[in-house]
Amino acid sequence: MRKLFGVPEFAIIALLFAQTARAQDRHPQMRIEHADVPLYPEPAHTANIFGTVEVSVTVKDGTVVKAEAMSGPQLLREATTRNIQSWSFAYHVSDTFTTEFDYQLAEVGDPANPEVKLQLPYRATITGVRVRLDSKNDTKPKP
User: Which among 3, 68, 103, 124 is most buried, taking Cβ atoms within 10 Å?
Assistant: First the structure.
């Protein structure tokens, strides 16, 4: 049997397997059964507000019992915590974890259809199109 750094290969494999098993015990599979699609909140979008919202989420028996925003713009915090309240997990999931919603504004795209990338339950990226004001009348957004 070959040795790697003076230790038999099977010992290294067994150690890695044990570490992986312990990590899975601490973080059970967080299978989401349902989640509403997050939207870019209209007031924040119109005001060109963007940023990352970090939220502490507590799940008990598959139900979100607490979603507390820890950072990010206020208008985005409210929309994020409302969306997280729509999540439901497999019935055996009980855990507390942190998730991030990253709201971005792009220069081009379909203003009526933001791009949403989900890596739930740990990350969501929502990209809207930057609102441009008409130079003749600064109160009317350009499409």
Answer: 103
